[in-house]
Amino acid sequence: MANLAIDTQTQTATIPVYLITGGKGGVGKSMLALVFIDQLRVLGKQVLYFETDTANADVYFCLERDAKNAPGEAIDGVTMFTINIENGNSWAGMLQIMEAHPNHVVVIGTASRTLDYVREYGYMLKETLPLIQRNLVTLWVIDEQIDSVNQLKEHLEVFPDSETHVIKNSN
Hints:
Blueprint: E1 5-6, E2 13-21, H1 29-42, E3 47-51, H2 58-63, E4 64-66, E5 70-74, E6 78-82, H3 88-100, E7 105-109, H4 115-128, E8 134-142, H5 146-158, E9 163-168
Parallel strand pairs: 2-7, 2-8, 3-6, 3-7, 8-9
Antiparallel strand pairs: 1-2, 4-5
Helix pairs in contact: 3-4
């Protein structure tokens, strides 16, 4: 998890950007993000977390050190931002922040309602990440409904060459 990968064409090390997503609400994306970030911290990794669910920023709030006395200040080992990915400028800003944190493992948490924006602006990640020595790894959370699989197919059309892991959350 969060190991460096070697780009065989350029022989340069890349640090992953983990996109935690899925087409539906309530499938466990936030829980996966929290567990994943916790494991990265256990491994001694510095984490750069982007919360894109601005209407329900539950992961962001869970990562706050002291919401009452220090709102927005993250726990040790985590740097975090909320970002509205509904426009291209926000994606460009997110990429600039990634570039400014070259040694951090990036985790992007998404809301189901932002899936269309990932499809619309995802090309920015696909084209820019290799330039900043990063590679995209999608963690796609599904449930037992067929629409989860159909939405995954659409996601893979945007990111055909990126590594994708499907996590099934079921009862």
